């Protein structure tokens, strides 16, 4: 008898924390899913993957592992955990073996928006607060984007440099939501990573904060993955 994945683990990206998943969390809970949210320190990929595995260890059955932005690198590394039956990338990086966020952003296509990342301070990165809304959260109400800008989590440069060892998408089925108005990770780059991973791709209009602005689209894709990845 096939067992449907009833567990979902949500992994946030850089500059933000897990609270941005609240609307997605509520939608999934309403549909009967057990949902856990990882609070990555974003100090290093190795540590963030270990924190994620700790949450995966607590799951009682097949689990859909979801990552936004840098969280895609985390789930690529941690998703080899036996509890994981499906991976869902939300406007996320999907590094291959030996790749890091740094290598994936090293050669941006001509004309692509340049994220307003400030020079590192003591090994940490921030986005320019004045440009945060336009680059990261262009489809959110200004007050919400401003709050995200002012509550930024310092992103460790070691996390960007962390290379994936065995990418989980090579052995686990994956789904990918492309945010077509993203000004942090260019949509063509998202499509290329999704295609390389062999992911089932959905596109929706939205900024890099599509997980906040379009929670229903995100929840729908997660439910699709849960139904599609029977063990």
Ordered list of secondary-structure elements with their pairings:
Blueprint (H helix, E strand, L loop, with lengths): L6 E5 L10 H9 L3 E5 L6 H13 L5 E6 L2 H8 L5 E7 L10 H5 L18 E2 L3 H8 L5 H9 L4 E2 H5 L12 E6 L7 H11 L2 E5 L5 H4 L1 H14 L3
Parallel strand pairs: 1-2, 1-3, 3-4, 4-7, 7-8
Antiparallel strand pairs: 5-6
Written description of the protein model:
The structure is a single chain. This protein is of the alpha/beta class. It has a single domain, classed as Alpha/Beta hydrolase fold, catalytic domain (Rossmann fold, 3-Layer(aba) Sandwich), CATH 3.40.50. The protein has ten helices and eight strands. A six-stranded parallel sheet has the order 2-1-3-4-7-8, sandwiched between helices. A two-stranded antiparallel ribbon has the order 5-6. Helix 8 (187-197) links the parallel strand 7 and strand 8 (200-204). The relative contact order is 0.20. The mean pLDDT is 95.
Describe, in short, the structure shown.
The chain has 231 residues and is an alpha/beta fold.
Task: Figure out the total of helices.
Answer: 10
Mean pLDDT: 95
Compressed to H and E, one letter per element, the order equals EHEHEHEHEHHEHEHEHH
CATH third-level topology: Rossmann fold
CA-CA gap between termini = 9 Å
What is the CATH domain class? Alpha Beta
Strand content: 15-25%
- Helicity level: 25-40%
Domains (count): 1
For the largest sheet, list the strands in their spatial order: 2-1-3-4-7-8
Radius of gyration: 16 Å
The CATH architecture name reads: 3-Layer(aba) Sandwich
Q: From the helix content, strand content and strand pairing, which structural class follows?
A: alpha/beta
Q: What is the H level of CATH, i.e. the homologous superfamily? A: Alpha/Beta hydrolase fold, catalytic domain
Sheet of most strands: 6 strands, parallel
Q: Could you list the spans in which at least 5 consecutive residues all have pLDDT below 50?
A: none
Anisotropy-based shape: globular
